[in-house]
């Protein structure tokens, strides 16, 4: 980040974000970030209408909050209908980041995973919708898989789920985990429909400390409308001064990352972010083409998606991907090697 932003962060390092009455400007900056991000994701907001969202310490907390909102919405509807509400489940691909497993385990939600297969390393929308039942709180789609950078087909998922909801009378929604892709897709693939343009997308999270271009410690979650965030999940406190609404898993946290995110958004603007993402994609293409020219690697990742290259050895009879990663580490290069999740565990890749 620029020196000016580093200075701003250091000047605010002693400011506790939760002291909204003492540091009201930080709250205002967070609200401005939420509004800009929600509009970037095409939230259905009128002129002057405030977006619904919150800053978090990362996408993991953001996902926990979004998941809790879906769970409570589902429970409230089941209670009103006089139906059991003790066995909620959530549908994801087996390629999800570990925070989804944490959410399911910590908050007692069954995790129903769509298994992968060789050559298809993201959630299959058709198989995902098949797993949806009356106890499904939502389907989680990933915009930028950690494993390959690939964007899942949220548009197809939405269309299939619309039809299933019509047939069953359910109203199962979608959460988009855009931790990596949320600050990429709007700039590189503006025509791609993955966000609030799709009616069943109820909430989206994004990491400010990934392609939001801020140091570690900032994430965001935004909701489609106010009705998608149950009011009973929002706490109101007054012991720090005026009435303060709060919906976070944390309480105290620093203000620096919120200020840094606001700085980046207004300093770079839409053009600036697009230029950065264009440059990342060009770098990815150079590396991809270079690896292909060696004739030694299979490229596993797609050209469209998060600008990364995931690849495997064509011939691993003498050396495997883990040996390559270990050798590179000796020269100071950290290139992770890992196996794919179920049912593609036999596939090993490296990622840059």
TrEMBL record:
GO terms for molecular function: calmodulin binding; glutamate decarboxylase activity; pyridoxal phosphate binding. The modification N6-(pyridoxal phosphate)lysine is found at residue 210. Pfam families: Pyridoxal_deC (PF00282). Its cofactor is pyridoxal 5'-phosphate. The keyword Lyase applies. The keyword Lyase applies. One of its GO terms (biological process) is glutamate metabolic process. Signal peptide: none annotated. Keywords: Calmodulin-binding, Decarboxylase, Lyase, Pyridoxal phosphate. It catalyses: L-glutamate + H(+) = 4-aminobutanoate + CO2. Its EC number is 4.1.1.15. Belongs to the group II decarboxylase family. This is Glutamate decarboxylase. It comes from Brassica campestris (Field mustard).
